[in-house]
Design brief:
This protein is of the alpha/beta class and 213 residues long. The protein is built from 7 helices and 7 strands; from the N terminus they run αααβαββαβαβαββ. It has a 7-stranded mixed sheet with strand order 3-2-1-4-5-7-6, with helices on both faces. α6 (128-149) runs parallel beside α7. Bound molecules: S-adenosylmethionine. S-adenosylmethionine binds at residues 28-29, 31-32, 55-61, 78-81, 97-99, 119-122, 138.
């Protein structure tokens, strides 16, 4: 009999090492280890940096980024849901749909960002094709917004469930940043199909089709 891949309905998959570690260390969500691992590999965060966190609820990336950038930095988080955990004063959060955000208003209020990080995920429908399509649409929206609010030289991280538009997305990240990589952080669940694309160093001159309007 063919062995079934274990899904998130399986408690052993949901409650794996990263989950138990996050619980033991009092972290808001296990997702924090993925950002930490990516940050360690690509050196994205340092004191004084300005970070835009897309899909920030419940707030583990916000808390991590706030600590790394320190009080001289800035962290702005946006999600469809309100963040409820206590965070330091250099963190600002807003309830909003990222796909409708006005980049000009963001830059006018906060200035250009050094890092845009998106951990956005759609509500899972149970249909793999639909979920991939929605995840890729969110990743493209995150890239569009990032290219409009990042300073030249700034960095980008985006989560995506790999589907048919994955190569096009990676191609766009390659054209917009001087270094582009697809990574699966070690703390990702074995059953997960998610990857993160990392773009380092936003090019000062973007290709016409990627340049903000
Ligand atoms: C995996 S969670 C993020 C976890 C977060 N990085 C953390 O460490 O706590 C994905 C989030 O994406 C948000 N999201 C999905 N679509 C969105 C959209 N269009 N605009 C804003 N947030 C969105 C969801 O509400 C959800 O809270």
């Amino acid at each position: 009999m063919a062995r079934r891949r274990k899904g998130l309905g399986d408690r052993r998959v949901r409650h794996d090492h990263a989950y138990r570690r996050a619980k033991a260390e009092g972290k808001v969500a296990r997702a924090v280890y993925k950002l930490e691992e990516i940050d360690r590999s690509f050196r994205l965060l340092r004191p004084g940096r300005r970070v835009l966190d897309l899909g920030c609820w419940p707030g583990s990336w916000l808390a991590y980024a706030a600590e790394r950038v320190g009080p001289d930095g800035l962290v702005v988080g946006v999600d469809l849901r309100a963040v409820e955990i206590p965070l330091p004063p250099h963190v600002h959060t807003a309830v909003s749909d990222v796909t409708t955000l006005d980049p000009t208003a963001l830059v006018e209020r906060f200035g250009a960002f050094d890092l845009v990080a998106s951990d956005m995920a759609p509500h899972t429908s149970g249909d793999r094709g639909t979920d991939q399509h929605r995840s890729e649409a969110l990743a493209f929206a995150a890239l569009r917004l990032a290219l409009a609010v990042l300073r030249p030289g700034g960095h980008f991280v985006v989560k995506v469930f790999q589907g048919p538009r994955f190569s096009a997305l990676l191609g766009d990240v390659r054209r917009a940043f001087s270094e582009a990589r697809a990574v699966v952080p070690p703390s990702t669940r074995a059953a997960s199909r998610e990857q993160y694309l990392v773009g380092r160093g936003r090019r000062a001159r973007l290709p016409d089709d990627l340049a903000p309007a």
